[in-house]
Amino acid sequence: MRVKSLQDLKPVRNALAHAARQAALAAEEARRQALRPASDHALFLQAVGAVLPLRHGAGRLEPLRTSALPLPIAQPLDEPVLLGEAISDAFDAASSLLHSDGQLSYRRPGIGSDVTHRLRAGHWRIQRQLDLHGLRTDEARDAVGQFIRHAQDEGARCVRVVHGKGLSSPGRTPVLKGRLHSWLVQKQEVLAFVQARPADGGAGALVVLLESQPG
């Protein structure tokens, strides 16, 4: 394009100025775009700084799998003890008791009659005693079970259980006497029992011979 006069230069200057402004605006927009995060991912990377991506599957956490509930260690040890102390009020001991001289006694099958004779004569020294006075039936039953087991564990062979003569009970009948017979017959530790001698409690107590602790 041939310029003939200065007047012809004016449109050229205007076109050049406009092009320069457009270029400046484009450059500014490009700068802003470069500074602006392109996405949330870019914003996160900008916040945390340089990171190394994990390999596929690396560091993956497996879901927690619930295993079976653990059994208490003491449970297998306690169960035989509890079964050994389980005595019932419904057990009828009448067929197991021996009648002699108006007194009731007991000896486990296989135990000779000489054992009850010696027990009645005081052949064995009484080593432990349990007094059931003032206890309700359920309390007395539990107390008898624990007393017999603990006495055997401690090596005692001959013990006395005081059930009372029932002098203050309705009908003056010992409430616990018959139940005590039934409870003792059910205890595997008990070899025999007889009514105590007068000096040891007479009709208000029983003298019990326990099986010796093995070992």
TrEMBL record:
Q: What InterPro entries does the record tag this protein with?
A: Smr_dom, Smr_dom_sf
Smr domain location is 130-211
Entry-linked Gene3D superfamilies: 3.30.1370.110
Q: Which SUPFAM superfamilies match?
A: SMR domain-like
Source organism superkingdom: Bacteria
Pfam short name (any one): Smr
Name under which the protein is recorded: Smr/MutS family protein
Q: What is the lineage of its organism?
A: Bacteria, Pseudomonadati, Pseudomonadota, Betaproteobacteria, Burkholderiales
